[in-house]
Amino acid sequence: MVVILKQNFTLEQMEEAVRSMEAGGVKVMVSRGSETTILGAEGDASRLDEEFLSQLPGVERVMRVSEPFKKANRKFHPDDSVIEIGPGVRVGGQKLAVIAGPCSVESQEQITGVARDVKTAGASALRGGAYKPRTSPYAFQGMGTKGIDFLMEAREATGLPIVTELMSADQLPLFEECVDVIQIGARNMQNFDLLKKVGRTSKPILLKRGLSSTIEEWIMSAEYILAGGNPNVILCERGIRTFETYTRNTLDLSAVLAVKQMCHLPVVVDPSHACGKAWMVERMSLAAIAAGADGLIVEVHNDPKNALCDGAQSITPAQFGDLMGKVGTIAACVGRSV
Amino acid sequence: MVVILKQNFTLEQMEEAVRSMEAGGVKVMVSRGSETTILGAEGDASRLDEEFLSQLPGVERVMRVSEPFKKANRKFHPDDSVIEIGPGVRVGGQKLAVIAGPCSVESQEQITGVARDVKTAGASALRGGAYKPRTSPYAFQGMGTKGIDFLMEAREATGLPIVTELMSADQLPLFEECVDVIQIGARNMQNFDLLKKVGRTSKPILLKRGLSSTIEEWIMSAEYILAGGNPNVILCERGIRTFETYTRNTLDLSAVLAVKQMCHLPVVVDPSHACGKAWMVERMSLAAIAAGADGLIVEVHNDPKNALCDGAQSITPAQFGDLMGKVGTIAACVGRSV
Amino acid sequence: MVVILKQNFTLEQMEEAVRSMEAGGVKVMVSRGSETTILGAEGDASRLDEEFLSQLPGVERVMRVSEPFKKANRKFHPDDSVIEIGPGVRVGGQKLAVIAGPCSVESQEQITGVARDVKTAGASALRGGAYKPRTSPYAFQGMGTKGIDFLMEAREATGLPIVTELMSADQLPLFEECVDVIQIGARNMQNFDLLKKVGRTSKPILLKRGLSSTIEEWIMSAEYILAGGNPNVILCERGIRTFETYTRNTLDLSAVLAVKQMCHLPVVVDPSHACGKAWMVERMSLAAIAAGADGLIVEVHNDPKNALCDGAQSITPAQFGDLMGKVGTIAACVGRSV
Amino acid sequence: MVVILKQNFTLEQMEEAVRSMEAGGVKVMVSRGSETTILGAEGDASRLDEEFLSQLPGVERVMRVSEPFKKANRKFHPDDSVIEIGPGVRVGGQKLAVIAGPCSVESQEQITGVARDVKTAGASALRGGAYKPRTSPYAFQGMGTKGIDFLMEAREATGLPIVTELMSADQLPLFEECVDVIQIGARNMQNFDLLKKVGRTSKPILLKRGLSSTIEEWIMSAEYILAGGNPNVILCERGIRTFETYTRNTLDLSAVLAVKQMCHLPVVVDPSHACGKAWMVERMSLAAIAAGADGLIVEVHNDPKNALCDGAQSITPAQFGDLMGKVGTIAACVGRSV
Lengths: 338, 338, 338, 338
Description:
Chains A, B, C, D: One of its GO terms (molecular function) is 3-deoxy-7-phosphoheptulonate synthase activity. Chains A, B, C, D: InterPro entries: Aldolase_TIM, Class-I_DAHP_synthase, DAHP1/KDSA, DAHP_snth_FXD, DAHP_syn_2. Chains A, B, C, D: Pfam families: DAHP_snth_FXD, DAHP_synth_1. Chains A, B, C, D: Residues 1-67 form the DAHP synthase ferredoxin-like domain. 4 copies of one chain form a homotetramer. The first copy, chain A, has 2 domains: 2-63, Phospho-2-dehydro-3-deoxyheptonate aldolase, domain 1 (Alpha-Beta Plaits); 74-333, Aldolase class I (TIM Barrel, Alpha-Beta Barrel), CATH 3.20.20. Helices cover 36% and strands 18% of the residues of chain A. Chain A contains 11 helices and 14 strands. The first copy, chain A, has helices spanning 11-23, 50-54, 108-121, 145-158, 172-178, 192-199, 215-227, 253-262, 271-275, 278-291, 317-333; strands at 2-5, 27-32, 37-42, 59-63, 83-86, 89-91, 97-101, 125-127, 162-165, 181-184, 205-208, 233-237, 267-269, 295-299. In chain A, the strands form 3 sheets. Chain A has an 8-stranded parallel beta barrel, surrounded by 6 helices. In chain A, strands 2-3-1-4 form a 4-stranded antiparallel beta sheet. In chain A, α3 (108-121) runs parallel beside α4, α3 (108-121) runs parallel beside α11 and α6 crosses α7 (215-227). The radius of gyration of chain A is 23 Å and the shape is elongated. The first copy, chain A, starts with a strand and ends in a 5-residue tail after the last helix. At the A-B interface, α2, α6 and α7 of A face α2, α6 and α7 of B.
């Protein structure tokens, strides 16, 4: 943390700023120039509050030098984290993880059928929503616990680990018992109560980026989970909200690179929610792998045009099979495999 | 809902589209031109799923004609809703509501002191955070239940109703018993589980607009609460996230006008979080009242430069007193009073 | 300018950074701590290139302390600039300037009629487009030089100074001879060639904020004109592009406050283009004046529903008359007059 | 174009809407339901003005069914356009085009040296700025005509066609005579005067997407050039402005897919300006090719850390050589070559 004082600061104001910084547990280095006086923090500055310091009288500007996240920071944990989400299924290593399945669980036949299809095509895990975040209270809200049961049967039938979204802390015990990866959706990325609670489990957490979250805020939400004691966090880029409305969101592949440089956690990409158009999924999947993502999460539905939710962005099992072939070819070009 | 078919649609595709619309409970009017064929829904189209219809084969484009919210819609409820938040304290009528207080409750003396000051200056209610949503897990998270106790003592001392943020459904029974207005923060605006739960109480809810929520999504979140049976919703515009970084957010005063035209719920404005700069609060408060807001929620701290949170955007009780005088003058110009 | 070195910088890298800063004409103050080493620039840092310095090996981060604009900066020019745009007509003083008129000049009768109406209602100047920036090459592009002639006749008839948009440097001689205020539109805010050319005239320039320009970029575009020798710049906030689509743009009134704090130039607000809806113009005008704008630019059309352009956002002369009355009342509350 | 009438419309209002549509040259199909009445345009609706119609009394909403661009539209021109930019050098075919070179031309040795290096590595064309759009009037503005001379010498030495940015219509005759591809920068994407003027030449135009331009606005700017008679337009995605500040802009690769579906013009990607960080260029280049771009435009500088402009985002000739090898491998996976 570096604090720059105003040109006309008083000694008293400087002392107040120094005291405030020291109260945060750092040593302060003062360098006075004829025009600019700078206070530099030495030591762990993660407890210093940038906003607080910036409004002290005498302070012109405050700049953070180091990232505010410690546990997620690659500087202190240079190796890639690899998260095990099922027997022999890992996210973050040389092998790409591809999570596939329908937006919503709709019936036992549907989810088991899709699970078999994506397993055959080479998927690593099965996704399917049992509780659905919907903008409208009148839209289909998911099958609830029955959906979880059907997912478990699909796992039983195929061996694929199951990934599903947790929307309420009440259901955490159920999720801990039944599912393999707990998804925290984009709209709950800063539901800090939920982050703290999943931080106390040891289940792998798939943390989607919020609609308008900066990369730093996203990593800070992962830090909440890590700080709670759960090291198993997988990040998921799913597009951000911008002025462009042709696509549902704007897929930010440069965020994948940025996160992987600053942070040791694996990052997967969701091209289905990012674009909202099934015909874009294949090409954006290939782009994500070329960019360096550790995997994909793709919506696959046996009958997209009759899907209860997000049919417009779902591909068929046959299309998914094609996609996996092409993903494998691109993966090989960048030193990965499927 | 209007559905436009592709130029080369087949009869079968048209029938499928018609059936899908009818399944949502509407009658369908078909009009065929030489180039364009249009399907119009007659009746309550709120159960039709725009995305689902738009991906049917044969469908070119889908356009919603009526708003997807029914209970919040001014068309069916032309009069302004007025929400009573305490004995004789109302939000939404001719008299403006001004909610004031510190970002966080820090001690009994602090909150009661500020409460007395803002009461004297003419505030309608007291705000103060007991549970704080913070980007960093290492930042001050609020005093918790002790904070609620202190708020209740401040209410006891001044008669001001108290407004505080609910972050976890676990605390809802406590909030129902102790507080007068439950705030749902911007980061939880689409925490649908929490919305459903506060929809089952009858407490007034202050619903902040999400950082990147459209006006329609914001009203749809209010609709969740109304649909649950709780008619007491106050909307709060607190700035949206844009590319501009000089201010913390960009205050969107045109949203106040838009909401008040489409929806019967009262809208207050939070200039403190919108701008993030104490020196901007006064002018943006006056602008909000001139635009037609039903009130304000303003951060006031006895000692902003030592505030545990958001000091940079808090004004002092003395500044708040000045502000109230000026707000009164502007209010008179637009047919309101404080 | 403050440059922070990487933790593991080499002496050679430090020397390179120092040399690069000195080459920009500043003295460099080095302060070395055990963890952080900081280089502070003393003197005029406006020639230092932030991006260039930030990519030097050994450099962790670069922070600008002072604003990069000198001539527009209030620090070196504390008094408000007041720009004379016609005999006795000033923008920037105690008296508000209200510029009104149609989007496009459509005929002599139309523009002179509107001019008479807005003059009677108290407008300070007449606006009207002769050359129109249109997204589509097939849309009405304006009447061109004939439009300028009609504007001059309207000025002749009413005495109102005329404001119109310059889209091509070719027309600059014509504009210098004929018009009173040259408008640079939002889409040309960073047409640096045009900025340089109008910087060489002495005509007042109305510089609209770009659709996605930061406040700093906007002031830097004014700086181009000032640096060219033309001190007569009026800034115009007209809404920025955000994710919200209910309004045409999002009016950013906090930008008015920000600009007026950093910069001595007057700022007017265009509620018509910002919102794109005639019914919003009155309230947003009042909000702008309450916020501290130095004036307004409002679209007024004799027959909005038959306007050739932007009818949806134009108010009638009668509505403009009402608006002026209300603007006067709000102005009085904030120490201004119309 | 589909126009939906308000529920309580009058016959007179309906007739007015019908007349307004017919005046734009279309036939109108009226379909009246018990609740919704719809007017559908038959024929070429490109002259109908959406905003104008939407503000007519009696009109609830207007929806465009077909895209407003005709010449750029793939519907009427299904085959990909291939633009020849030099003898045997084409953009838009099976072979990818890679344009490389420094941000600015700095000297004859520099530009010819870089040209030789990128030619050896397989580049298709040489880029280099002679006139530079800079946010600050005090920053290096380019070498001007001398820069053009140096580019021509580099072409002479290597045979590479040269691409450089036109900022002023004054220089168009010079550019027509001397350069192979005229670049229109992001900040001039809606400088309609310049678009019209380059539309009258036959030179290939590289049209960068504006910082906050929608995909449709971008294609409409291409339509200006096509409508002027110049069919040789190459589109360039270079990142859009969003709330994220880690990267200079946010590269929108889904826009490449969207444009190529709606429009027959070739699209290249500029990863250097999009990200603003040299270390991101390689991976984002691979992602762009995987997504389906027709080529790249990459900043390559012999000595990035001493570059006069944009050094932070420039790669070295050696890095460019590596990049070309990897681009070739990815290209082969998607049926392209370099």
